[in-house]
Amino acid sequence: MQLKYAVSYIVIILACLIFTNIYPIVSYRDMLFDSKCASLKNQASLIASSLTPLSSLRSEEVAKVMDLLDVMELERIIVTDGEGKIVYDSLAESGNIGKYALFPEILRALEGKDVFYSRFSGGAISSRACIPVINEGKLTGTVYIAENDAEQAALISSLRSNIFKISAVAFAMAVLLALVISRVMTVKLRSILGAIRSVGAGKYGHRIKVRGRDELSQLAAEFNNLADRLQKTEEMRQRFVSDASHELKTPLAGIMLLSDSIVQNDKMDRDTIREFVYDIGKEAERLSRVTQRLLELTRLENKKQVGLVPTDIKKVVGEAMKILGPLAEEKDVLLESTLDDGCVILADSDLLHQIIFNLVENAIKYNNKGGRATVLLYKKEKEVRFIVDDTGVGIPEESLPHIFDRFYRVDESRSGEQGGSGLGLSIVKDAVLKLGGTVSASRRKQGGMRFEVVFPLYEGSVQAGRRGEDGRE
Hints:
Elements: H1 2-51, H2 59-68, E1 76-81, E2 86-89, H3 104-110, E3 115-121, E4 124-135, E5 138-149, H4 150-200, H5 215-264, H6 270-302, E6 309-312, H7 313-330, E7 334-339, E8 344-347, H8 349-365, E9 372-380, E10 383-390, H9 412-418, H10 424-434, E11 438-443, E12 449-456, H11 462-469
Parallel strand pairs: 7-9
Antiparallel strand pairs: 1-2, 1-5, 3-4, 4-5, 6-8, 9-10, 10-12, 11-12
Helix pairs in contact: 1-4, 4-5, 5-6, 6-10, 7-8, 8-10
């Protein structure tokens, strides 16, 4: 690519320099030719008009007329009669008087045509003019003028030489500059290509040093952003695999240990076997819960779009609290709520139920005996706020930033006793984001935790909201 860039630049510059070398010289030369032809034409016309009164052109009469005209600066003047014989030649020593002039220009003038031209040859500008002399409609002779201008030709040659030298220097500098520019451009491209290969090989920490603000620099910056996201994704994947393996390994290890104990101990009494089988069942339930939670997370991630319809949160909250009522009684936790009407949002009813159920269930499970779990639902400006308060032991301040991470558990032993997998709040967060909302957690001053979910308020008709509750549009 560096070679292609360099060759492209060089070809373009060479074409420009060739044009620069040709066009000015040709333009100046043509302008000079036009000037020469106009001058010779005027002088030939002057001579011809002076000879027109003569009925026939004879040497003596023509010489007298020529002596009266101021045309001696011309290099050569030839006057012929109507038959092409020379009757006057400014080069008197040539001895051509009386001879036929067989110049092509004179022959064409004898046919009644005007001839004017200039050409650059032999280091001089050769200009020729020849016009017929007409007397009362009869061709009586011709006037031929010749001029060779070596000074103007030398000027053109000098100009051509100077332009060529300047062009040669400019071309050399342009070639060098093209090589430098192409190298600079390809260095960035090679750097980007090397970084792509490194990331493709699994080195997600590789980054490109971004210099400048051109398109290649912007491309490098975008690559770095992409590499950052890939690195985070890979770290999350590895952490997820590690955590999932750990979570699945623990109940499996317990099941294997308990089953081996039963098999290897022939003298184990019936009550002990029953206790071991009960423990195996609990570990199997725990394994099932973890697997189910992982499937829910996978389903949320793979569900690119959800069907959102106007849904009244109050009804969904009521259904979830009805299901969780027995659990609250079992844990000796007072479950109370304050739910406003008209809290309609665009949502998927299943996802919304999952959010509400998980948060209220956690408020009950991790509460103190005789505690209280309070559910609040109200509108504020153009938002709907769903809040769950509990009077439990709460979560340490340093753990708050991590509670929505997968498999994160504040107290491993306590979570294990309650059957927690460390996935519930991750599912809540993913589901809330799917519905366009936000979720946050904070410690209550009175003790316990507060979880707050905020959704955009749906401002359509109430009828639309009621239809959404049934899942129909």
